[in-house]
Amino acid sequence: MADAALVNRMQLPRPDITPEDAVEILQTHYGLSGTLTELGSQQDRNYRIDAGDNAYVLKICRAEYELIELEAQNAAIRHLHAKPDAPRIPEVVPSLNGRDILTITIREQDYLIRLLGFLPGRTLTQRKYLPPAAAAGLGALSARLARDLADFDHPGLHRNLQWDLRRAGPVAVQLLSTITDHEARDRIAKAMVAAVKRIQPLAGALRVQPVHHDVTDDNVVSHPDAHGQQVPDGVIDFGDIIQGWLVGDLAVTCASLLHHADGNPFYILPAIKAYHAVYPLEETEAKALWPLIVARAVILAASSEQQLAIDPDNEYVRGNLDFERQIFDVATGAQPDVMEAAILRTIGFDVAPIATEGWSALLPDVDQQQIAAIDLSVTGPDFIDANWQKPDMDWRLLAQAAISSGAAATRYGEFRLSLASPLSMAAPQNFALHNDVCLPSGSTVAAPFPGLLQRQGQHLVLVGEEVSLHLDGLESALEDGAAIEQGATIGTIGSEGSAIGGLRIQLCRVPSLVPPLFAAADQADGWSAICPSPVALLNAACEAPRPDASALLSLRNAHFAKPQKHYYETPPQIERGRREFLFDMQGRCYLDMVNNVTTLGHAHPRLTAAVAQQLSLLNTNSRFHYLAVAEFSERLAMLAPEGLDSVFLVNSGSEANDLAIRLAWAHTGKKNMLCLLEAYHGWTVASDAVSTSIADNPQALTTRPDWVHPVTSPNTYRGPFRGPDSASDYLVDLTDKLQAIDEKGDGVAGFIAEPVYGNAGGIALPHGYLAGAYDAVRQRGGLCIADEVQVGYGRLGEHFWGFESQGVVPDIITIAKGMGNGHPLGAVITRREIAESLEREGYFFSSAGGSPVSCVVGLTVLDILRDENLQENASVVGDRLKAGLIELMDRFPLIGAVHGTGLYLGVEFVRDREALTPATEETAAICERLLDLGVIMQPTGDHLNVLKIKPPLCLAPESADFFVKALEKVLQDGF
Questions:
Q1: Which of 972, 874, 946, 428 is nearest to 937 (CA)?
Q2: How far, in whole angstroms, is CA 873 from its chain's centroid?
Q3: What angle do CA 262, 197, 329 make, to 5 degrees?
Q4: How far is CA 736 from CA 4, 424, 555, 678, 785, in A?
Q5: Residue 116: strand, helix, or coil
Q6: CA of 853: how far to CAs of 332, 622, 816, 820, 915, in Å?
Q7: Going by DSSP bridges, is the β-strand pair 102-106/435-440 parallel, antiparallel, or unpaired?
Q8: What are phi and psi of 645, to 5 degrees?
Q9: What does the DSSP assignment read for 500-552?
């Protein structure tokens, strides 16, 4: 086809085929009738028809496209259907006369007509956010198609198409001629020129084969994976299939992802990695990929501008225009050398190292092996009590180290804790691409290699043959453009009246680039290739080892027993905490909204000091006589209702509940225990026996021992009876269970329940439920156990104990978790006669439960709860948080309910507010997306469709607001 014909086709509007025309075509030529819906297209006209149980797509294109091109598309579809592992693709549906392609004339215009089966699934283009799994899925899908098309051939593939990236330059020139916005035209032209300049030297080595050339977010369909994230698995249309560059096919896919990237071009790397795993790229192709992505972005932007000028009513093009402008902005805003390096490293190629052999000393007055490297990472030993938040803290520590050792340096490649950003939805730019050195003022700085000096104010750059050396902090009389010999003095360390001064050192491969000092974690591979380590100018200790969370996870999995699960499939490596925040090894700060173990917040300095002090004095077991065990037992008894005056100290909630059940057995002489369905009480034999949550144990309902009698959970939201006044209805089942036990004559030992339905997300029990249950159990001589492990100890705000909200007093209270703020500590509080019943079975002893350290921990936690008004904070901030969540419920129908009180809340997600269909997969995906945005959150409930919100009680109002905003963003942008 001549270029003139290609130019003509580029200027065509869509076919003038109305819905009425489409109905007639379908009826006459395919015998189909049904509901018609128009689908979008750049230059074709497409209609979906739903005809009974089947759906189809009627595809209409102008006759300027040759028949052989459409025959190639159909042939490719049939070729792929014959492949055993091909992606889902539509079927070619013949007409009534058995033809795959029809030529029809309407209003004196010829059109080519085809019918394909409709491929079910969700498209991705309108989802603002796509998770990494979806991006990787798109890359893998593109690779599978390319792999399966490699042995396909058809004469219709050899055609001139405006989307063929081999012709990107000439096509762009033609498209630019139609754009009247001079500023936009200049930007597009400059971007294409720069891209072509990088592609041309590589073009001859790029593989050519049949390629789909349109595996994009709006041309695939997807399904949710086990985590509720959409993963592409089907391809809708084959209209752009050509014989073209293999890597150009991937460039098309990657470009489509950029409008989901939130401005971050590195977002495409999972797609490239997944593609390479299926159909490996060659190194030359990897180098050509980024400029091809830029070229695709240019063609998209220019084509849409031109098509709207030709066809202003094309809502499909108009709807995509903003996306394509975003693609263009992200593609042209990235540094191409960095992107090339990032792509190479992502798929296992590397950038050649800088040749430093033969370099001379940068600091000839200093023994570089004696330069002390300081640790400013998340685990840096000098960071205590949040001092990393103080201004210039890194410099202060550097100066102190230099004064002590003579010279000190920060470490290249270190994720700086001081740059961690609390309450930020973006990862920090904190990966150091430079070293700061503190050394005696007046020290000489010399050229390690020959080069030309560039001055940009006080910023000096020594431009060498292979790399440039960027320097700050020097006093130098050299002029801009001066030629510097190796070993020649560049300047001396400035003093500013001090005995020590600072020098900043950075290397960069791109001569014209002033690189950033820091990069985000996901950009570190690319930027560190362009700005390699200056460690050769200092010493090996001045480069930080790269943390490897995946290797550590493998080590954990190798030796840490598998039933001990971890949050998230790919968990961050958390090594520091402060108040309601957690920090991973890359310096990412997370808002901890799930950790009810740390009631006071992480690393409370007062608690840390108290533990250290007691450890320096004594730590033994409670059979010895010491002050702390007596004081702590008294404090706990004073917090309990009158009469509950005896305390057992243990290590965990599981042990506390296990002991409570043993006490009920010992005191009553009976065995039978009543519990609630959907509940969790622990992992020991007895506490697990009364745990019925199928989320924690899928076999829970079929494996309870015969002494356990679960009763219907009084779930006022999704149970058989709804609302706060449903207690009498729920008590019927409990009474029936008790009567059945009565008829057997076995008697009842007790009843255990959380006074607020913690495992279901903080759902309040119906009014009077516990009063009725306790009364029925006590009439039969049984004991009533309040499991306060999750919900008690001030977390509910209005009440210190959960049972207070029901107006009852239990016989036994169990507590743990927050009472130790992360230290293993639990307790059972009961009446003296119940406690002493256990002596009939022998004495009770817990090695660490009542140790001096454990008791000091417990006392200090209570002191801080009181002194910092944390129960009141739980009430005030909890009310604020719940109000914000209820506002979201009004806007997003996925939120079915907001449960709880204080800082024990639950957000329940449902697909239908009437049927209450649990949105289990969606909840999992929401938790993953919240992690991306800097929030730790996990699902709960039997259906795992509830966000269990139980942060440290020190949660600040602004942190509560941040959580609401993060959840809003997830629900608004997608997950």
A1: 946
A2: 29
A3: 20
A4: 87, 53, 51, 19, 20
A5: strand
A6: 60, 11, 15, 10, 51
A7: unpaired
A8: -120, 5
A9: EEEEEEEEES-TT----SEEEGGGHHHHHHHS---GGGS-GGGBPPPP-HHHH
The amino acid occupying position 712 is T
Which helix (H) or strand (E) covers residue 889, if one does?
A: helix 870-891
Angle between helices 168-176 and 3-10 (to 10 degrees): 50
Instruction: Name the packing angle between helices 605-617 and 852-867 (round to 10°).
Output: 150
Among residues 117, 129, 89, 118, the alpha carbon closest in space to that of 233 is found at 89
- Among 154, 146, 93, residue whose Cα is nearest residue 118: 93
What is the chain's alpha carbon radius of gyration, rounded to the nearest angstrom?
A: 34
Helix (H, G, I), strand (E, B), or coil: what is residue 868?
Answer: coil
Residue 870 tokens, joined? 């944390």
The dihedral over CA atoms of 582, 588, 591, 594, expressed in degrees to the nearest 10, equals -60
Kindly report the pTM of this predicted structure. Answer: 0.93
Strand partners, 753: 786
Q: How confident is the chain (975 residues) per 10-residue block, as mean pLDDT?
A: 58 85 95 92 87 94 90 96 93 96 93 95 88 94 97 94 91 82 86 95 97 94 84 92 97 96 96 98 98 95 75 73 90 97 96 94 95 98 95 96 96 98 96 97 96 94 97 94 97 85 97 95 97 97 95 93 91 97 98 96 97 97 95 98 97 97 97 96 96 89 94 95 96 97 96 93 95 98 97 96 97 96 97 95 88 98 98 98 97 97 97 95 95 96 95 98 98 94
Distance CA 326, CA 334 (A): 13
Distances (CA, A) of 194 to 247, 250, 290, 870: 18, 20, 11, 59
| DSSP conformation class of 170 | H
DSSP string, 624-680: S--HHHHHHHHHHHHHSPTT--EEEEESSHHHHHHHHHHHHHHHHS--EEEEETT--
Cβ 233 vs Cβ 121: under 8 Å: yes
The closest alpha carbon to 757, from 698, 699, 820, 806, belongs to 806
User: What is the rounded CA–CA span in Å between residue 408 and residue 438?
Assistant: 5
Enter the DSSP assignment of 416.
-
Contact (CB, 8 A) for 606 and 584: no
Given CA atoms 405, 411, 412, 417 in this order, what sign does their dihedral have?
Answer: negative
Q: How far apart, in whole angstroms, are the C-alpha atoms of residue 650 and residue 638?
A: 18
Q: How far apart are CA 535 and CA 202, in angstroms?
A: 33
Q: How far lies 109's CA from each of 39, 64, 67, 314, 380, in Å?
A: 21, 11, 15, 19, 74
Give the CA angle between residues 429, 576, 936 to the nearest 5°: 75
Residue 823 CB neighbour total at 10 angstroms: 20
Angle at 407 between CA 404 and CA 409, to 5 degrees: 110
What does the CA dihedral 406, 412, 413, 418 come to, rounded to 10 degrees? 60
Residue by residue, DSSP assigns 266-331 as GGGHHHHHHHHHHSPPPHHHHHHHHHHHHHHHHHHHHHHHHHHHH-TT-HHHHHHHHHHHHHHHHH
Locate 180 and state its tokens. 């009247």
Bridge pairing between strands 589-592 and 935-936: parallel
* Residue corresponding to tokens 């958390």: 574
Task: Give the integer Cα–Cα distance in Å for 718 and 740.
Answer: 26
d(CA 296, CA 253): 10
List the beta bridge partners of residue 579.
Answer: 602
- 3-class SS at 621? coil
CA distance 43 to 10: 9
Which tokens is 971 given?
């629900």
Q: How far apart are CA 186 and CA 179, in angstroms?
A: 10
Report yes or no: 462 and 504 within 8 Å, Cβ to Cβ: no
Round to whole Å and give the CA distance between 270 and 570.
14
Upper half-sphere CA count for residue 205 (Cβ side, 13 Å): 13
